[in-house]
Amino acid sequence: MPAITWEVTDGVAVVTLDCPGAPVNVISQAVKDEVYAMLLALERDPNVRAVAFFSGKADNFIAGADIEEFVRLKSAAEAEQLSRDGQAMLDRVAQFSKPIAVGVHGACLGGGLEFAMACHYRIATDHPKTQLGLPEVQLGILPGASGCQRLPRLIGARAALDIILAGRSERAAKALRLGMVDEVVPPSILKDVTIAAARRMADRGVMLRRRRGGLMGLLLDGNPLGRLLVFRLARKQVLSQTKGNYPAPLAALEAVRHGLTHGMAAGLQREARLFGELAVGDVSRKLVQIFFATRDLKKDFGVPDAPPPGDVRRLGIVGSGFMGSGIAGTAVVQAGVDVRLKDADLPRVAKGILAARAIVDERLTRRRISRYEHARLVALLSGGDSYTGFGGAGLVIEAVFEELEVKRQVLRDCESILPAGAVFATNTSTIPIARIAEVSRRPEQVIGMHFFSPVARMPLLEVIPSGSTAPQTVSTAVGFGRRLGKTVIVVRDAPGFWVNRILGPYMNEAAHLLLSGVGAEDIDRAMVRFGFPVGPITLLDEVGLDVAQHAGEVLEGAFGERLAPPKALAALVKDGRLGRKAGKGFFTYRGGKKGPVDSSVYPLLGVQPNGGIPTADIVQRLMYAMLNEAARAVAEGVVHTPRDGDIGAIYGFGFPPFRGGPLRYFDDQGADHVYADLSRLAERLGPRFEPCPAIVELARARKRFYP
Amino acid sequence: MAFPNGRRVAIVAGCRTPFCKAGTVLKDARAVDLARHAARELIERTNLDPAKVDEVIFGQVVASPLVPNIAREVSLLPQFPKEIPAFSVNRACASSNQAITAAHDQIAQGHADVILAGGAEALSDIPILASRRLSDILVTASKARTLGARLATFARIRPRDLIPVAPAIAEPSTGQSMGQSAEKMAKENRITRDAQDRWTLRSHQLAAKGTADGRLTAEIAPWLPQRAGGEVVVSDNGIRSDTTLEQMAKLKPVFDRRYGSVTAANSSPLTDGASAVLLMAEDVARALGYEALAYIRSYSVAAVDPGWQLLQAPVWAVPKALERAGIQWKDLGLIEIHEAFASQVLSNLQGFAGKGWEINEEIINVMGGSIAIGHPFGATGGRLFTTLSNEMKRRDVQFGLISVCAQGGMASAVVLERR
Known about the structure:
The complex is a heterodimer. By secondary structure, chain A is an alpha/beta fold. Helix content of chain A is about 50%, strand content about 15%. Chain A has 30 helices and 22 strands. Chain B is α/β, with parallel strands linked by helices. The mean pLDDT of chain B is about 95. In chain B, strands 1, 2, 3, 4, 5, 6, 7, 8, 9 and 10 form a ten-stranded mixed β-sheet that branches. In chain B, helix 3 packs across helix 13 and helix 4 runs antiparallel to helix 5 (about 145-155). Chain B is built from 13 helices and ten strands. The interface of A and B includes residues 350, 353, 382 and 384 of A.
């Protein structure tokens, strides 16, 4: 079945791209061949004076190039050729003898936007699903089918770099303002307007576009000197954001710069060469793996033959504190469900609702929603000091104080009110779900949903079935987590679950380093260079030292000496140094902003920073502490697959994506190396580094986590 | 049976916002916000599937030009399907009586099974109008074809045209304010200052008792602050448990400073608030598993010449409702009389007594009335239905009466039955 079909009416060929059997359109080799064939046929057809191009998918134009083809690339030369092929096809489109107008509705990304830019007139719909962008750098590559050349020529260097270097997408209104499209219309008239534009071009020739950008555009984009400044600033910004760990944005910058300095042809050549290098590079491979892992996770409910998730139209939340209100605001904004908050007294409920509302307000401030949509979402939030309204809830999430008896009481209270099919989820980071579910009359409908703080920002959710949780309950929790926009991993009901379990020894080791006289800033700097968004000491301050201490004690209680946090940290908690929320921790805080290290922490810990330890040693101790525990947890089945483990670490606490996650990192290091280094560390620093049986076995059998 | 051809209509539940004096804790809320709050909380309390609602009817007296059909905005709450039709009514202070009785008729006729009816008023947020001349000039200017013509039109604006006009609570046909009418009734019916103050004291004391024992607060959906540092409001803020006759006696009459007797104390205050009542056909309520608090047995409306005694129409409406109910005054076990002014309540009672009816104060306004609780025009009827039907259930009273006087010389009377 062909992807491209057309019919000719009144001199205009109305072309539809509809990749058979796929949910979205992607540009594959087969599609490219069809494009050539189509162009040839239309060129020869004397009845065709112009072309109007559309997608046949409901809410998608073209999602991009075919990633499956891209993954199969073996060498840089092969990848470069793929880029040249794409460029050649789009050159054919751009040089086509008859004008082509394109009507864009739905996602128009990567190769899709490159295609649209090669056409002669672009019309987009004002629908929120219509997004135009070049996300390639997010996969560690660059727009390799002339995107690095066409976009700056269309909208100026500054705006183009904004989009290309961040891999950003824009909505139609912004795209129009920037000049990426020529018109924005409602979906109902897209076809008519596009066909009319094609006909108009046939009658009067292709229109010349106004140059946009005003005075600043002229000063910065319009002359070589200004562009030099633009490129220098862009480079600086990229380096400060990527810490040099991601080559793609710099390469894209180079492709754009080369093209604007030496002309289109030279630019295309450079673009293809850089694409080739990036495509087979390690970073891109890792980012593509994560892309696939995330995509597969979206279809994986974590139970075999998962029943369809229950329909949650109303969400009850018990506990309107930081977590509860964060879940409430996210649920309203992302899932549009009706949310009922319950807490012990009305002032607390009011505070929680206001905090949830702040999440909705932020969407308005950032113009993601209209004033009317905002009012509708705000009206979804309500609450009280009783369980009134919980009778209609399909799901209840409790986010009350982290204490077994309190959570059990909430469960009992809810069960006497909830409708028969409703799921009760407990948001805990330290209490086993099974212990809470012990008091339940229907433990098969009880499950853990471990959110990360702040809920609105953190992309991960751990869903934890207990031994008695029904598959239907798991599907409902996972499905609802996805509606909240979260990436969901299903993990075993073991202390610390996955994320905190492997984070624990890492944080402990950071404390050991501190106590051995390494400066807090040195530790953080080493890990940020390694690729973490923040270092472990900053993370301690953010999470709260009391919270971290409690989590540490739980892990110690479950796993003994191996996961025991150094006792000296208790002195800081006793001193009221709880971190950012208390305005003092390892760092100083002034007006909510983090300052330098508070040097008075060192006497409390009984040390003086003596520097001296190499960065590589810091990284090794922290990472190997994590890998050792991660291998143990994988062997215990805490995560179903290494994929879940890596995604959990990346989305849960920002493990460097370009390293692919802790288990990929383990494989890259090699089990034998990890084993040897751990053994040495154990000799020097104590039994906590003793390689776990799983690593011993992996090293012995020369095996990896991933095939 | 009062409606022999129709289905009996059950009052399933009611609730309201706190009633708060205008310009106080609810001053930032619009009437529509209050109405939506009451409606939403009623749905929460009854666990009703919102898709079951067939119609929403709300009363409002001073409607905002920005929200001309408040009921539709209630039915467009995101908890409801968007396909629930809605209309708003205005029968002055009896507007939510009107909304509820209109709902009754729709259900009785079989046009609807479940209706959410109520009313709202935000007297903190009344529309302030431009002067007539300024509106004329603006309308003309908007039609001007050239800039010159437009400027010439604007040039006609005089400073006094810019003074805004606040709608007065006065009769359009007589120019008499409510207070002046209440004063007139006090004089013509010889209601003394002392009698008025004593009724006022009673209203406050009974309302304070109803609040303290939780009967009133149970009907209130607490209002949560809309911004940080705001106050949670769980009860009406006009009720004065500690007021005394001596304190009230010190107040000067407002409308006739020399010979008058109507004071700020013995009048109902300007109030913000909303109420909502859930009505169902008797069989539908049973099928959905709801127990009716009470049923509507009959209702009536009446009107008198506004230039005579503006608030005396209940004396005509009540006998009609009793006659339609097929019962007599002495059959009533509980009575809720809207208290616009103490002089009006006492005039109404005097009128009833004139019919040979014995007045038993023990069963009248047993949790106080509008003088203490407040009177958001459009919302008061919903409060009366809720309070009366709850109290009828509590005391297991078979017949109850609601009597509401209204602007324009009108009145609404409703008879409820328990079984």
